[in-house]
Design a protein that fits this description.
acyltransferase; transferase; cell membrane; 9 strands; acyltransferase activity; two-stranded antiparallel ribbon; seven-stranded mixed sheet; Glycerol-3-phosphate (1)-acyltransferase; cell inner membrane; 291 residues
Length: 291
């Protein structure tokens, strides 16, 4: 009982700073609140040594010759982007209705519509880059709906908020694991769309290059696309301008070859995006651990 009580107290304590930041500015406009949380996260990346160290370890791997001051600015800029992204996910019901912010393009969107007209499912693959919920917002704008796969948060307060936000972007929301996988297969076989973020470390994955270094990568999206003859469509929502608008690009479906080559093609696509806008990727994923 004491252990459970202590765990609850710790979860409250860890959630309190974010709750305070969100509550203090709740009277302001959506964009101002989003920018405010971005500024808070920028400060964390500047003044909180554990966050700086974790970022530095990952960034040095990809940019070994980058000057320390440049790398510090990159980390702070990443914090600004991720603070805004987190705010928008927490308030996804409102974010999804702001159609004027999304500029959609790319052949993958037509491929997605074509698959739906044919009664087929589709797999949209993206990463923790830009604002990935902008992708599902555009899908919804076009009269479709995409579910999503997510990793449940251990803190029940964060879990409640983030799950509510993700559900506002489209259903079903499927947790990683056996139960979620079975539901995912049913959804796809019934003609549904699912969005998957493929840039997290997967301990049972295959070593595939990502940003020039081997990373343990899940083959599940490609395996499902091959098994059920579904399009696997990379899509990315890049934050542009003052950060309040998004360029949402749906790339052409990855050609069906084998699961490793298809996943490698996605890794290459995401890597190009990151190298063009490195501050928009979440560098804190420990992406290369264990590889």
């Amino acid at each position: 009982m004491l252990s459970a009580s202590l765990k609850s107290v710790l979860q409250h304590a860890r959630y309190f700073p974010l709750w305070s930041a969100l509550t203090a500015v709740r009277w302001r406009s959506f964009d101002s609140r989003s920018g405010g949380l971005g500024t808070t996260f920028r400060a964390v990346m500047r003044w909180f040594p554990p966050a700086r160290s974790r970022f530095d370890r990952e960034a040095k791997r990809v940019f070994p010759d980058m000057k320390r001051s440049t790398r510090a600015k990159l980390g702070q800029d990443m914090g600004w982007h991720m603070g805004r992204t987190l705010f928008e996910i927490y308030h996804d019901a409102e974010f999804q209705t702001q159609h004027h912010k999304f500029r959609a393009s790319g052949p993958g969107l037509d491929a997605l519509k074509e698959a739906q007209r044919a009664g087929k499912g589709a797999i949209v693959v993206s990463g923790h880059f830009g604002q990935w919920e902008a992708v599902r917002a555009v899908i919804k704008m076009n009269g479709l709906e995409s579910g999503a796969v997510y990793r449940p948060h251990k803190n029940r307060h964060y879990e409640r908020r983030i799950r509510t936000g993700i559900e506002a972007g489209g259903k079903p929301i499927l947790a990683t694991g056996r139960v979620g996988t079975r539901a995912l297969v049913r959804h796809l076989r019934n003609g549904g769309i699912i969005s998957i973020l493929l840039d997290e470390k997967y301990s049972e994955g295959v070593r595939i290059p990502f940003l020039g270094h081997d990373a343990l990568t899940s083959l599940s999206a490609a395996q499902l696309a091959l098994k059920y003859d579904l399009p696997m469509i990379p899509a990315f929502g890049t934050r542009i301008g003052d950060g309040n608008t998004f360029r949402v690009e749906f790339e052409a479906p990855i050609p069906h070859t084998d699961s490793i080559e298809m996943t490698r093609a996605f890794n290459d696509s995401l890597s190009r995006r990151i190298m063009a806008d490195p501050e928009q990727w979440y560098w804190m994923l420990r992406r290369w651990d264990g590889a």
